[in-house]
Amino acid sequence: MLAEGSSAPDFQLGWWRLSEALQRGPVLLVFFKISCPTCQLTFPFLDRLGAPQLITISQDDAKGTAQFQQRFGPSEPALLDEKPYPASNLYRITNVPTLYLIEPDGRISMAVAGFSRAHLEVLGSRFGKAPFREGEQVPLLRPG
Known about the structure:
Layout lengths: L11 E2 L2 E2 H5 L4 E6 L4 H10 L7 E5 L3 H11 L6 E2 L5 H5 L7 E5 L5 E6 L1 E2 H11 L13 E2 L2
Parallel strand pairs: 3-4, 4-5
Antiparallel strand pairs: 1-2, 3-6, 6-7, 8-9
């Protein structure tokens, strides 16, 4: 896993390229697998954050990924990082979900493996939306 404060490696998956997206503002990258229970917990909260550029990156096939997103969200299609996992390897992904907030200057300002309520709350504050509803039962942490 790349550390906070380090430079985010540029990459392209399909039509999408990180360096081009960063020209429009910060990017929230979320790497995931459809079989991951912690990913299933995390994904419903991602749309609630209000991140203008939420990019999810699946390590699975297109059909399984589409079914996962239909059930758990978010609404935007995921990028596919299929074997040999070029983007996942660049970002040293060992656990999923792994989340990176990348600033327009290319610096990683947040790096989180697994589910962290506190980190999602910080992101919600940053993007102006609360990820959790009042009274909603949400764990503090769950490893990926």
